[in-house]
């Protein structure tokens, strides 16, 4: 729009030469100002885009770090549970062996006490037999004395 005629007229009137120069200077200043504003806007948009990209990358890095920490925290708990489970299973196996050994030992003790009880019973039976035999012998002795005294 910078035709010679448009420079000579400003809003439909003819300008004197000094105003023409001033208008051209203002137009040049205006254009340079607009170009400067466009360049500033482009530069600030580019800086903003770069800053946004850096912030996005940093946010992604932080999110990845947070995810890693969360996974480690969860896995640490799971790993601890797994280790504890293995320890408990080993302890259960050990206790099962101990219980079986105590069961056998208890059976042996029961067999021994039954044998002792049987022996004591037999002793008691023998003692009763001995008392019976002693009583019988006394009767026989008394009978023999009576017979011997009577003759």
UniProtKB/TrEMBL annotation:
The residue range of the signal peptide is none
InterPro entries per the record?
Answer: BLOC1S1
Annotated stretches, region: Disordered? 1-28
| Pfam family, any one | GCN5L1
Protein family membership: Belongs to the BLOC1S1 family.
Name of this chain's protein: Biogenesis of lysosome-related organelles complex 1 subunit 1
């Amino acid at each position: 729009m910078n035709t010679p005629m448009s420079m000579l007229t400003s809003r439909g009137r003819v300008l004197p030469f000094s105003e023409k120069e001033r208008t051209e200077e203002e137009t040049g200043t205006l254009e340079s100002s607009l170009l400067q504003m466009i360049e500033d806007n482009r530069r600030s948009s580019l800086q903003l885009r770069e800053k946004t990209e850096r912030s996005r990358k940093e946010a992604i890095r932080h999110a990845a770090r947070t995810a890693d920490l969360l996974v480690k925290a969860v896995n640490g708990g799971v790993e601890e549970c797994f280790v504890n489970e293995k320890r408990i299973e080993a302890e259960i196996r050990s206790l099962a062996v101990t219980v079986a050994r105590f069961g056998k030992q208890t059976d042996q003790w029961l067999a021994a006490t039954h044998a002792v009880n049987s022996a004591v019973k037999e002793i008691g039976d023998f003692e009763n037999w001995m008392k019976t035999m002693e009583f019988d012998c006394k009767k026989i002795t008394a009978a023999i004395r009576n017979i011997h005294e009577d003759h």
